[in-house]
Design goal:
Elements: E1 2-4, E2 30-32, E3 44-50, E4 55-60, E5 65-70, E6 77-83, E7 88-94, E8 99-104, E9 108-113, E10 124-129, E11 139-142, E12 147-152, E13 157-162, E14 167-173, E15 182-184, E16 189-194, E17 199-204, E18 209-215, E19 222-228, E20 233-238, E21 246-250, E22 255-260, E23 269-272, E24 277-282, E25 289-295, E26 298-305, E27 314-316, E28 321-326, E29 333-338, H1 346-353
Antiparallel strand pairs: 1-2, 2-29, 3-4, 4-5, 5-6, 7-8, 8-9, 9-10, 11-12, 12-13, 13-14, 15-16, 16-17, 17-18, 19-20, 20-21, 21-22, 23-24, 24-25, 25-26, 27-28, 28-29
């Protein structure tokens, strides 16, 4: 069930020599109903997409489960909710394992079967205890060593989980308030934002030790983090509500090399290799927005206005759609809209971000998107 919201595409709103891009692009937003939480106030954590099987998984505190959405069509459709042993937090689909991993309030990692051929599809097949007193939260996966790295932000450690054996292989001690971790396949290190100390932690996941802490040059309170492995560069989604910025991170040089003030105060960041875009749920910005960044070179492109509760983001490669949460009072549900600058990437996107006229940037016309 879906309904179109106000916010149509701006057509013919700029002259021939005017820039292709504007800071905020008006897009048609479609609201998708999630029946168990419809007409309730949203309390979602994160979301993750299975591109191959066209599924979207959303950790949902309201129904204490993971909402499963079918995204094989032009509009997402609710399928089911997988009950969790406690309130869910971070969530990650691992394509190599065909499973979804969910951190919970009880310091557990619940494992959902996501293989369409399995009789156990959309059920919890394993629960892994990380041994903390607080929640198991954000995570990333190392396919070489087959390790799942799970933050335990209240307890001050990261759990290195063997998902095949279903147990914690090691515990890595870190400061509290660890956020969205990133495994770098280039140097095979783990990078973790430390929100309290405004820094990025460098961890050797094979030795299970914290190697270094890199202070960020400006107040950021890093939350979201994502990498483009092809360039070995990434985007840091800053969470501070006063210092509204986003940072670009060089994993090789281990430093911030660019700062943008068109997005900030947000949470989840994802990268998509097909679109060559980073997507940042900048829900605390004014106005609250879903920001789109070019990947190479990293530069801000445009944003779509959302809600101050829209702190989550996922992307559908097949339909080139962005998903976030409808967080309005008593309107818990899913929002979807087209990437406003789909096809706008690489050097052309960089030119558009610098104000190049439309004649030079034919793929960077937001009002032509649908």
């Amino acid at each position: 069930m879906a309904a179109a919201l106000i916010g149509g595409i701006c057509a013919g709103c700029a002259g021939f020599q005017e820039p292709a891009l504007q800071p905020v692009t008006a897009m048609t937003i479609t609201r998708v109903v999630i029946p168990p939480v419809n007409h309730k106030s949203a309390s979602f954590d994160t979301m993750t997409a299975d591109q191959e099987n066209h599924r979207l998984y959303i950790s949902d505190d309201v129904d204490q489960g993971v909402d499963v959405m079918d995204i094989s069509g032009a509009v997402a459709v609710y399928l089911t909710t997988v009950p969790m042993p406690d309130y869910p937090h971070g969530i990650l689909y691992v394509p190599e394992l065909h499973r979804v991993f969910v951190g919970t309030d009880l310091s557990q990692v619940a494992v959902i079967e996501a293989d369409p051929a399995s009789r156990a599809l959309n059920s919890v097949v394993k629960v892994i205890h990380t041994g903390g007193e607080g929640a198991a939260d954000q995570m990333d996966y190392d396919p070489v060593e087959n390790r799942l790295f799970v933050t335990n932000p209240d307890d001050g450690f990261i759990s290195s989980v063997d998902p095949t054996q279903g147990k914690v292989a090691a515990r890595i001690m870190v400061p509290i308030a660890s956020e969205q971790p990133v495994y770098d396949p280039v140097d095979r290190m783990l990078y973790v934002p430390d929100a309290d100390n405004n820094s990025i932690l460098l961890i050797d996941p094979r030795k299970n030790v914290l190697l270094h802490e890199y202070a960020l040059p400006d107040l950021c309170v890093p939350h979201g983090f994502a990498i483009d492995p092809a360039t070995n560069k990434g985007l840091i989604g800053c969470g501070d509500k006063d210092s509204l910025i986003t940072m670009a991170w060089d994993f090789a040089a281990k430093r911030v090399f660019a700062t943008f003030d068109f997005a900030g105060g947000g949470d989840q960041v994802v990268f998509d290799a097909k679109s060559q875009h980073f997507y940042f749920a900048a829900s605390g910005y004014t106005p609250s927005e879903l920001a789109v960044f070019n990947a190479n070179p990293i530069t801000y492109l445009t944003s779509v206005a959302t809600s101050h509760h829209s702190a989550q983001v996922a992307y559908d490669e097949t339909h080139q759609l962005i998903y976030t949460i409808d967080g309005r009072q008593l309107e818990a549900g899913l929002w979807q809209f087209a990437d406003p600058v789909k096809g706008c990437k690489g050097h052309e996107a960089f030119l558009a971000s610098q104000g190049a006229p439309r004649a030079q940037t034919p793929h960077c016309h937001p009002e032509q998107q649908s």
